[in-house]
Amino acid sequence: MDYHWNWMFFFQETDDGLKYYDWILSGLGWTTVVSLASLAVALLLGSALGVMRTTPNRWLVGIGDAYVDLFRNVPLIVQLFMWFFVVPELVPEKLGLWMKQDLPYVVIAVVGLGLYTAARIAEQVKAGINSLSRGQRAAGLALGFTEWQTYRHVRLPMAYRIVLPALTSEAMNIFKNSAVTYAVGILELYFQYKQIIEKTSQVLEITIVVTLAYFALAFVMNRLLASIERRTRVPGLIVGGKGSN
Amino acid sequence: MRKTLTMIALSLSAAGLAAPAHAQLTGTLQKIKDSGAITVGHRESSVPFSYLDAQQKPIGYAMDLCAKVVDAVKSELKMPNLKVNYQAVTSQNRIPLMQNGTIDLECGSTTNSVARQQQVGFSVAYFITSVRMGVRKDSGIKDIGDLDGRPVVTTTGTTSDQLIKQNEKGKTIDVKNIYGKDHADSFLMVESGRAAAFVMDDILLAGLIASSKNPSAFAIVGPSLRDEPYAVMVRKDDAPFKAIVDKTLVGLMKSGEAEKLYNKWFTQPIPPRNVNLNFPMSPALKAAFENPTDKGVE
């Protein structure tokens, strides 16, 4: 292959006076912001939906199930386009104009990515709660806890510990999925990747660097949550695949 | 070794001798001779340069020009039955695919730029595009100054947004840059009122407007922010092959045949929907046909 390698271009100046590595750092920053904000949205909403789906109330279960079915079965990029292009045309005209001209795009990206991931987290939280023996809830109620208190003090603390490995995957996925938000105009890492290819044509160098950057982001998230998993372990209580130790 | 061969080929052509078929060939010509096939890279939706028709066959102005180049290669190598393969490329993969030998020439809408010349070679320009603004007529935007404080869209991974940045630096125009995923997305941003203007190659704007629901609602306005030459992409430092490509294109330009092909694609209804782009030859392109050049844009 007849390729002209040039690793030094990262230190060349761009049209806007910054260096190319500044573009990558700025992309990394936006990727991190969008991912963490979406993760927060997804954890809050996903937990609420997961809990709803385990309550005795049929309406709450129905709403939770419908949400998961809808958001888990539509591709992420289609959902982002729905929020970005379609929703502003469906709401009252003034609100639509505000959404199109004043609302920062990052809000749409965070909502889109957050709601998509929430459906997946809801599924995991539900699975975690359902994996507990029914006696846990009964014992809580017998001690005089309300339904909500059995969630808050008995079931959720255990359910989260059980599904933490699955949530770790989700937290890593969100960094990788955030690349799709370039499609709604977020200047994140993948966007900068495309821009730098167009400007420098140094495809291989930039691809290697961006690959490593995504790997690093997901890997840091993985290590972080693994350490949380270790710190929150309750000896003798959680029964993982191989029993506790 | 290869360098020496290139030198030999160069001195042969410098002496006015077309390298005879029995002489040592180099680079792309050697590869074509050995494999018995030439692979033409084409685009899928660069109307009217290189795109797929209703039968998924690549057609367009650049494809017509490249067909002539392929004919020239056939007669140069004395291989009338040379097999012609077509390979679709995108703006992301066209340069790597050229470098790794997947395609032998690329016929699409590729700007010949100095940065790209680090990686690949370019023929003489067969089209000159001007970067201008596509706007809704009811927006009242006539010039670049009218953009102050307005959102302006361009497509991710194209060269046009540099111009917005350069214009921001030079003048006191403060625009809000937004980015569409592809040209259709960017155009939708103008159509839906998210962006006041779409800064892009005028020919692409003309294509988007011509195929929109209501072409009369849009206009291409403002001065040219920059002229960019479109050229056939070949491998870097492959002078014998580039010479054949250039000789063919220059011949077409001088004989008037290139202009005929231009009119066929730019001023008449074209497939698949019989849209007429109404895009007569610009003075810049007429000049480029008179004095063909392979100079890249900065």
Your description of this structure?
Chain A has 245 residues and is mainly alpha-helical. Chain A is built from 9 helices and no strands. Chain B is α/β, with parallel strands linked by helices. Helix content of chain B is 37%, strand content 24%. Chain B is built from 10 helices and 11 strands. Chain B has helices spanning 2-14, 27-35, 61-77, 94-99, 160-170, 183-191, 202-210, 239-255, 257-266, 283-290; strands at 37-42, 45-46, 50-52, 58-59, 83-88, 105-107, 120-136, 151-155, 176-180, 197-201, 218-235. Chain B is globular and about 60 Å long. The model of chain B is unreliable at 12-22 (pLDDT under 50). The interface between A and B is medium-sized, with 30 and 33 residues.
| Strands of chain B, total number | 11
Low-pLDDT stretches of chain B are 12-22
Shape category of chain B: globular
Mean pLDDT of chain B: 88
Sum up the overall morphology of chain A in one term. globular
Structure characteristics:
heterodimer; A: 245 residues; mainly alpha; 9 helices; 73% helix; disordered C terminus; B: 298 residues; alpha/beta; 5-stranded mixed β-sheet; 3-stranded parallel β-sheet; 10 helices; 11 strands
